[in-house]
């Protein structure tokens, strides 16, 4: 048995020494590819590989002191391990833990373990038969696998707190809404789940019971934004040199991919076919990033700039083939531009310019096969353009202050006019009003936000005394489907709504609060 232990110990020392050298060469941080200072590197090399090499040579010359020499080497290896652990813990999580630190720690620990095995086995010859060497090789494979799991845990696992969804709760529950959740954004609704983003990650909530179905949280990085793209929850975390993007199955919470990208701060997530588009917003917005929704491969990046100067991103909408970006450029006067980018390559397909006489920023809405840009305040103008060619089509006057597109390609307008509050559906291809319904009693209300799903539309209105009212209507004819008051525990300055064909979800949140209230219809 001793020859097998002796062989396993020597293999562990060899693998550990190689790992320590490799770890010191590899970067210890992802951002900046930084390494430890030379003094610390020299200390780890001295305590680890150098003393190990000297001890191997000494035991060959003085076999009578084999166990004492091995014990000294084991203590030195343990010291190297502790130094490497302390140094690795100094890496800021926001900079990203590179391979260098964990590999160095794993290598130093493996070498120390090898010397412990040699101390236990004592001096002697190595195995001469084949079978013992197979056992030694198997032990080496196990050591490498364990070290691999340890490295992965040190880089990612220790920061992530995640669960996956189990079976949905039984239907027919009598849950009282609203319920409070840690969160800052309603990401969307998928099947029986509402997805909520918090500063530390995302949680999915069962609509029937309010219980948390799954979660994906990180203790090392803050979230910037999140989006629901074709059944995938895409969460963006901020890092020192860009973002970390995690894609999760919306139904189960299982991780589909995770990757880091160099970029500025992101403000929104959009889906364009099989492409996920990450966009900044406002003054000095950085590059747009597009990644493959299946693999996380970076497809392209695009800089919002015109005439030699940067542009502000004021809005963004997508179809399966095109990403339409609304810009305000100031290099040569104020120029509002809509640019169409190919979803798969980022190549510019078309651009559309407008000159506005007001400070109102350009808005763009997707209508399936095209886009509608809305400009101005009084009067406001809406223009339809083909998604692929950018060909300008029919113009019409928006029929309301709030606009939202339907899955069927119509554009709905909500107007809180004191004369006649109404909800109007317009075909953007022709500018024809498909239907127009009055909303009695809403003249003094203010439309805040809206969403559509299948053949339903939901609009959240604020009453003069600050309460919230959810109005639902059929997108086919405007007939009412919902009219209820949403309980608001506080002033509720921030309101969001999302829906499936079976449920509408409304969230309310105070300014800068880290908790929101969720209501389900």
Automatic annotation (TrEMBL):
Residue intervals of the Pyrrolo-quinoline quinone repeat domain: 192-307, 339-500
Family annotation (SUPFAM superfamilies): Quinoprotein alcohol dehydrogenase-like (SSF50998)
Gene3D superfamilies: YVTN repeat-like/Quinoprotein amine dehydrogenase
Keywords of this entry: Membrane, Transmembrane, Transmembrane helix
Transmembrane stretches, start-end: 7-26, 38-58, 70-91, 97-120, 132-151
Protein name: Pyrrolo-quinoline quinone repeat domain-containing protein
Organism, as annotated: Dactylosporangium maewongense
Source species taxonomy: Bacteria, Bacillati, Actinomycetota, Actinomycetes, Micromonosporales
């Amino acid at each position: 048995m001793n020859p097998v232990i002796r062989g396993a110990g020597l293999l562990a020392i060899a693998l550990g020494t190689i790992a320590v050298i490799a770890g010191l060469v590899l970067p210890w941080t992802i951002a900046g590819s930084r390494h430890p200072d030379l003094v610390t590197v020299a200390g780890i090399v001295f305590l680890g590989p150098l003393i190990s090499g000297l001890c191997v040579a000494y035991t060959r010359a003085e076999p009578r002191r084999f166990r004492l020499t091995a014990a000294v080497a084991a203590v030195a290896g343990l010291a190297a391990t502790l130094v490497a652990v302390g140094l690795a813990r100094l890496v800021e999580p926001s900079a990203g833990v590179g391979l260098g630190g964990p590999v160095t720690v794993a290598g130093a620990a493996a070498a120390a373990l090898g010397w412990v095995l040699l101390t236990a086995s004592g001096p002697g010859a190595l195995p001469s038969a084949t079978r013992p060497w197979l056992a030694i090789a198997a032990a080496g494979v196990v050591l490498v696998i364990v070290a691999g799991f340890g490295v992965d845990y040190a880089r990612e696992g220790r920061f992530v707190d995640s669960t996956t969804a189990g079976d949905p709760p039984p239907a027919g529950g009598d849950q009282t809404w609203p319920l409070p959740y840690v969160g800052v954004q309603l990401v969307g609704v998928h099947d029986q789940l509402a997805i909520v983003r918090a500063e530390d990650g995302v949680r999915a909530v069962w609509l029937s019971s309010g219980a948390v179905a799954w979660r994906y949280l990180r203790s090392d990085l803050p979230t910037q934004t999140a989006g629901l793209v074709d059944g995938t929850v895409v969460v963006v975390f901020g890092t020192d040199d860009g973002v970390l993007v995690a894609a999760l199955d919306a139904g189960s919470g299982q991780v589909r991919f995770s990757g880091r990208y160099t970029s500025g701060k992101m403000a929104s997530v959009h889906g364009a076919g099989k492409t996920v588009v990450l966009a900044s917003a406002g003054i000095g917005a950085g590059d747009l990033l597009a990644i493959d929704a299946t693999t996380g491969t970076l497809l392209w990046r695009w800089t919002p700039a015109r005439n030699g100067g940067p542009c502000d991103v004021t809005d963004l909408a997508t179809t399966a083939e095109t990403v339409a970006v609304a810009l305000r450029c100031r290099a040569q006067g104020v120029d509002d531009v809509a640019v169409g980018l190919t979803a798969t390559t980022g190549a510019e397909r078309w651009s559309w310019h407008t000159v506005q006489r007001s400070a109102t920023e350009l808005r763009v809405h997707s209508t399936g096969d095209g886009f509608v840009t809305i400009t101005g305040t009084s009067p406001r103008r809406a223009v339809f353009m083909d998604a692929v060619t950018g060909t300008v089509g029919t113009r019409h006057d928006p029929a309301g202050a709030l606009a939202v597109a339907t899955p069927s390609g119509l554009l709905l307008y909500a107007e809180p006019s004191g004369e006649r509050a109404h909800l109007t559906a317009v075909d953007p291809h022709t500018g024809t009003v498909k239907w127009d319904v009055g909303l009695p009693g809403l003249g003094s209300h203010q439309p805040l936000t809206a969403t559509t799903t299948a053949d339903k539309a939901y609009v959240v209105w604020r009453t003069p005394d600050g309460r919230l009212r959810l109005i639902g209507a059929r997108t086919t004819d405007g007939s009412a489907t919902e009219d209820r008051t949403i309980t608001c525990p506080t002033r509720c300055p921030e309101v969001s709504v999302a829906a499936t064909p079976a449920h509408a979800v409304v969230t309310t949140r105070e300014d800068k609060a880290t908790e929101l209230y969720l209501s389900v219809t």
